[in-house]
Write a structure and sequence with these properties.
The protein contains 13 helices and no strands. Helix 4 packs antiparallel against helix 11, helix 7 packs across helix 11 and helix 8 packs across helix 10. The chain has 405 residues and is mostly helical.
Length: 405
């Protein structure tokens, strides 16, 4: 693995600590007030709208500065969110939630742009699988420890104690950003963040249609699983130690999946298929009205999501890897935008959900399942088109589809 990818693994360890905390406890902090799904959905909606714009802005900034600036902005935005959580109170709750969600979205967007644009330019295609599986291992280790540690701190010093701790980690992230490679697209033709010529410049890129379809489908089921993993857990218990314990249980199950992946050396598409089966089972059994079933659903989807995300990310980056640097950046901006579009669309529907047993929720499960099951097909078609692209044998039908995007 290249030195640049190793540095990213260290950065991931620090950033995941913050992101795991944010993903669980800021959502819980908002949920505890009124116990409304709509408030948590509103926070996540604002977060992903901000994320999409931040990612595009970060890609553009990479034509003027280095990836270090992107990481610094990410750390500063995260710090702003925790300062607001510690000091700001408003009578208008939706406005207050929006003011928290925006800097969190900027933090995620700038970090995601910095990491994805760097990873796509670092190492070989063979190293990408090792990188994403190792990054997944780090994430699961952090996910195991952080909730338990922060639950202890909250019990002793309240939420403010953990807000202060996260500020310390953000400072560490800011300092380590100066040790990251000075990746930049300065002086290269084309602006990564400029989508105006996307259709024209990609009209000869076979597979763009299937690449886009894969991202749109992924946004639906990723958002559904991520959001309702939290809501299911909060419906089982609001005790922070039990939430941390359940999260640890889900993480241990995921680590078992990681062990099986490494033990049997599953290929990308095999891993993707196994993940789809597990997540589908988790989505379906949740319709049974019992708390133990919610836990079982989370166990299945936690393992399944590890398989799906590890395989899907590897396949996506392998498709992007042969492109020139500015085209890689455009591909990643397009990818992030499409994922955010369907994440936001899913959350708009979730705003109307007030019961996880209602018809709208059942309909969302159906849409998420269809999106999930379509993913292996979309990735297969994108890979075949990519192989033809490298061989210089792109079929005219797929070029036309890509040009009509």
């Amino acid at each position: 693995m290249s030195d640049a990818l190793r540095r990213w693994l260290i950065m991931n360890m620090m950033s995941y600590t913050i992101f795991v905390y944010v993903g669980i406890f800021i959502n819980l902090f908002i949920w505890e007030k009124n116990r409304l799904i709509s408030e948590v959905a509103w926070y996540n909606l604002i977060l992903y709208v901000s994320w999409a714009f931040a990612f595009a802005a970060a890609a553009y900034l990479l034509t003027k500065a280095t990836v270090r600036l992107l990481l610094a902005v990410s750390a500063f935005a995260g710090g702003s969110a925790f300062v607001l959580l510690s000091t700001l109170e408003l009578d208008n709750r939706l406005l207050w939630i929006a003011l928290i969600g925006m800097p969190v979205g900027v933090m995620y967007g700038f970090f995601s742009a910095a990491q994805n644009l760097s990873v796509s330019s670092s190492g070989t295609s063979a190293e990408l699988g090792r990188y994403f599986s190792t990054a997944g291992s780090i994430q699961q280790g952090v996910t195991l420890v952080v909730p338990l540690l922060t639950a202890v701190i909250i019990s002793l010093a309240g939420y403010s104690g953990t807000f202060g701790l996260m500020l310390v980690f953000l400072l560490g992230m800011l300092v380590f950003s100066f040790a990251m490679p000075k990746l930049s697209f300065r002086g290269q033709s084309g602006e990564p963040g400029d989508g105006r010529d996307l259709r024209a410049s990609w009209s000869r890129k076979p597979g763009l249609f299937w690449f886009t379809a894969s991202n749109l489908a992924a946004g639906v089921f990723l958002q559904f699983q991520q959001f309702f993993l939290l809501v299911f857990t909060f419906n089982v218990t609001e005790n922070k130690f039990w939430i941390a314990a359940l999260n640890a249980l889900y993480t241990l199950a995921t680590l078992a999946g990681l062990f099986a992946y490494r033990r049997f050396g599953l290929k990308d598409f095999t891993l993707l298929f196994v993940g789809c089966v597990l997540v589908s089972g988790g989505f379906l059994i949740v319709l049974v009205p019992a708390k133990p079933v919610l836990i079982a659903s989370n166990l299945l989807t936690a393992v399944g999501m590890f398989c799906v995300v590890a395989a899907w990310n590897t396949l996506q980056f392998k498709w992007i890897k042969p492109l020139a640097a500015p085209q890689q950046a455009r591909a990643l901006v397009w990818r992030e935008t499409m994922i955010c579009v369907t994440r936001i669309g899913t959350l708009v529907l979730v705003l109307s959900v007030d019961d996880i047993r209602g018809r709208l929720f059942a309909a969302l499960i159906g849409v998420a399942l269809l999106s999930l099951l379509a993913l292996p097909y979309f990735e297969y078609r994108a890979r075949k088109a990519g192989e033809r692209r490298e061989a210089g044998q792109a079929p005219s039908g797929e070029i036309e589809q890509a040009g009509n995007m």
